[in-house]
Design brief:
By secondary structure, this protein is of the alpha/beta class. It is built from nine helices and eleven strands. Strands 1, 2, 3, 4, 7, 8, 9, 10 and 11 form a nine-stranded mixed β-sheet that branches.
């Protein structure tokens, strides 16, 4: 019998890498901003223990293509399914039903619609259903959390998503949505631009009045069971520490290694 030893060696290396990746301590506060811009989308974030990743999508010829700006050409290798949904499903299966084995917190996939909301949702909804066995879902008014919780940002078709049943995605809310009665299952996260919420630049200690704004937003969201994320926040330890102290749940970062190092130091992992 002929054995392809090179292929066997590569397969064993893959398994070892997967094992190392899944053994990383997951960080509940770590959100990978524009995750797809890293050298290895999704996998770099997983290797650092991130529990929330962000993918911008464009609807192109019926497919959802992940990119920051609309591509000139559609590449299947850059599809949402190829880069995120399929590898997440494989990882969950290998991990006994979780992205990080033994981690009981949620893992978020935030999908930012860059093209028209209704058409993009019409393409995404059946795609999510294809991976429904790993996703959080609400059916007949009952929410069940899965290994991966999807929520939608950007051009969100609010009513269509809210009315879907079964519904495999939630909505990325805004501070103005607080107090309007939206359940956390529909709106798991409330997000806003860091610089819209705060005039504080992060170059010095946060002033008292700015701290009150920040903690006021966090407390209002937490009272409704929702998490808070601020995008466009500076990637510095002072900002990360201030946000964490205020109770911001998802720390937005492009610097994956830096944020992991900060959280490990801060949380004592």
């Amino acid at each position: 019998m002929h054995f392809n030893y090179r292929m066997i060696s590569l397969f064993l290396l893959f398994l070892a890498g997967a094992a190392r990746s899944q053994s990383v301590t997951p960080l509940p506060n770590a959100h990978a901003h524009n995750d797809y811009k890293h050298k290895h989308p999704l996998h770099d974030a997983l290797g650092q223990g991130f529990t929330s990743v962000e993918a911008d999508v464009f609807l192109m010829g019926g497919d959802l293509i992940v990119a920051h700006h609309r591509p000139l050409f559609k590449r299947k290798s850059r599809s949402l399914e190829t880069l995120y949904l399929k590898p997440l499903a494989e990882r969950v299966k290998a991990g006994g039903g979780a992205v990080y084995p033994g981690f009981e917190g949620p893992f978020y996939l935030m999908i930012d619609f860059k093209t028209e909301g209704e058409a993009t949702w019409a393409a995404l909804d059946p795609l999510l259903a294809k991976y429904g066995d790993i996703l959080s879902v609400e059916k007949e008014g009952v929410f069940k959390r899965g290994a991966v919780t999807v929520f939608l940002s950007g051009n969100r078709p609010f009513n269509s998503v809210a009315g879907a049943s079964p519904r495999y995605a939630g909505i990325d809310g805004r501070p103005g949505n607080l107090g309007q009665g939206f359940a956390a299952g529909l709106m798991p996260v409330v997000s806003d631009n860091f610089h819209k919420v705060l005039s504080w630049t992060g170059n010095s200690e946060i002033p008292a009045e700015e701290w009150e704004k920040l903690t006021g937003l966090v407390n209002a969201a937490h009272a409704e069971g929702k998490k808070v994320r601020l995008w466009a926040s500076p990637d510095t330890r002072l900002v990360w520490g201030t946000l964490l102290k205020a109770g911001v749940d998802l720390i937005n970062a492009d610097d994956l290694v830096g944020l992991r190092g900060f959280l490990v130091d801060h949380l004592g992992h």
